[in-house]
Amino acid sequence: MEFSSTSGNPVLVKTTTTPIIPSSDNLSSSSAPVISRYVNQKRRDWNTFCQYLRAHKPPLSLPLCTAPHVLQFLQYLDQFGKTKIHNQTCPYFGVPAPPSPCPCPLRQAWGSLDALVGRLRAAYEEHGGNQEANPFGNRAVRSFLREVRDFQSKSRGISYKKKRKRQKQKVPS
Asked: Which segments of the chain are extended strands (E)?
């Protein structure tokens, strides 16, 4: 819409424009490739982990990184969590929807940690790490994630039972 003036008084005139719709011709090889959300997240997680290794005292190189370093990283990330995890002494321990706030800490949710470890495990191998020596796939890391899942399940009163796939029903012929 524009304003037009014929006799000194402004008049609102409706104008129409055709929107520009990108076609496949406009999006040729000059545009950047579309990167998936997963790949972006994996790259950000990898950069965060590498930054953590550089800030470690003493700084660690990737080949020297072991499962205990991964566990330290996961525990470091807990301070940035957004999920209320009740302590065993809290009156709301095991209550799924507490009626009032409590002083229990905010921590990383188990699902977030599990997904993070999966992305870092893939990124480690993409950056030249040996699959057998991958610290993110270590038994200690898997055990830690299992313990976090079980404790958070009890703390929040939420079941993390793995859902079984239904068997296909046989159609009688």
From this structure: 2-5, 10-13, 83-84, 106-107
DSSP string, 75-97: HHHGGG--EE---TTSTTTT-SS
Q: Which two tokens stand for residue 72?
A: 């330290």
Q: What is the pLDDT of residues 85-115, one digit of tens each?
A: 888 888 888 888 888 888 888 899 999 999 9
Chain mean pLDDT for the chain: 80
- Whether omega before 58 lies within 30 degrees of 0, making that bond cis, reads yes
3 pLDDT band (50/70/90 cuts)?
A: very low
Choose among 101, 107, 120, 96: nearest CA to 148: 107
